[in-house]
User: What shape does this take?
Amino acid sequence: MNITEGAELPPLTVTVTRENLVRYAGASLDFNPIHWNERFAREVGLPDVIAHGMLTMALAGRIVTDWLDDPARLVSYYTRFTRPVVVPDDGVGATVEFTAKVAKVLDDGTAQVAITAKFDGKAVLGKATAVVRS
Amino acid sequence: MYPPTATYEVSRAKIKEFADAVGDANPLYRDPEAARAAGFPDVIAPPTFLTVVNLEAINAIVSDPELGLDYGRMVHGDQSFAYERPVHAGDVLAVTTTVAEIMNRAGNDFITMRGDVRDADDALVVTVQAQLVVRGAE
Assistant: This one.
């Protein structure tokens, strides 16, 4: 694997459906109704049900752990949640495109991997960064 | 500072359920033999797995009447994990949660919470930090 500055990781595209949200709610124990109840989501001003930010973060993390041979080399993982991923009940779902590249190699043997996640052409994660040990 | 949560015992079944939910087929999350061959005591958990443990601690704070937060107006601002080692099946974990910062900007409340996750030997495993944003009433 290539830990040189600018190296790109293999990209990942994931389609998120309502079924995925229900499954993630159960697995993560996050039962906030904005992730499964359209009526509630609209009541609090959202356009529709939205994906758990933590699900998007988990999907984005896959791009890094798929690339690392050893997940123990992950030192830290951070993201901001800048826009919601809206998941309509349309039988299709929401497609999120993930890319990542080695942004910086540091003297202490670690490297910063910058991750992007795009939905509907716009970034949904901000400053998403994984620090890995080389 | 809030008292540590009741301990949480990490199971192979919950790790597999979580890995399935995030569509991650990595054998280290499913196959104890593969995990041992890679040097881990048992199957390990995906990087964001500790949200399962941390959420309970967050919910305790969100429902703290002293803070008076409005759950319906709350969104997740940011999240970080700092790892000492991967979590594995058989870990018995406890989280100590502290409110690291509260600030108000442009009518919105920003609450930063930190969770220190320790194992049965009281060794730090992961530090989890989350910023919650409560949108001001319009």
Summary: The interface with chain A takes residues 14, 17-18, 20-24, 26, 28, 38-40, 44, 46-48, 51-52, 55-56, 71-73, 75-83, 85-86 of chain B (CB under 8 Å). Chain B has three helices and five strands. The first strand of chain B starts at residue 8 and ends at 9.
